[in-house]
C-alpha cells in the first residue's frame, strides 16, 4: 500500500480507538520496551511526547520509569522548529516548563539543547511500519532529517499500537529504516 493511503487509513483507525484501549496498548509497549531494551548508565534516550488528541502511544510512563529506575540515563525530547523544518533536542528535567505547540505536542521551553550525535536510542512515533523497517509518519520528514544527523550506531526504535503491514509500496530514498518496533504484544527487529 502507498504511504498516503496508509497514512489516511491508519489515522482514521487510530482516531476510532477508545482512549482506554490506547492506554492499555501503550502500557503493553512500555512493558515490552523495558523487557527487550536494557539501558546502560550514561546513555541518552530520545523520547517523543505524545499528541493525546491523535491517540499516539503514551510515552509518559516510559519517561517516568526511566526517571525512577534509570536516573543515570538522560532523557531528551524534541522541539519542532517549523521555520527550519527540523527538530531540536532538549534534556527533559523536572524543572522543564512544557508548552503545547500548534499540533498539541508538549515541548520544553527552558531546557538544555542536546546535539543529535549525543543520542544513543531514539523512540520514534509512527502510524504504520512494514517488515522491512520502513515507516509511515505524518509526512513532514522531521524524523528522517533528525535520524540522518544521528550517529550511524544510534538505535532506531519505533513505537506502534498496531502490528506491521506487509509492505509499504513507496519508501523514499531518504527514509531511514527502523532497527526495531515495539508493539503491545511484542517486538519486531530487523534481521
TrEMBL record:
Pfam families: 5-FTHF_cyc-lig. Its EC number is 6.3.3.2. It catalyses: (6S)-5-formyl-5,6,7,8-tetrahydrofolate + ATP = (6R)-5,10-methenyltetrahydrofolate + ADP + phosphate. Keywords: ATP-binding, Ligase, Magnesium, Metal-binding, Nucleotide-binding. It comes from the Bacteria. InterPro entries: FTHF_cligase, FTHF_cligase-like_sf, NagB/RpiA_transferase-like. It is an enzyme of class 6 (ligase). GO terms for molecular function: 5-formyltetrahydrofolate cyclo-ligase activity. Its cofactor is Mg(2+). Belongs to the 5-formyltetrahydrofolate cyclo-ligase family. This is 5-formyltetrahydrofolate cyclo-ligase. It comes from Pontibacter rugosus. The lineage of its organism: Bacteria, Pseudomonadati, Bacteroidota, Cytophagia, Cytophagales.
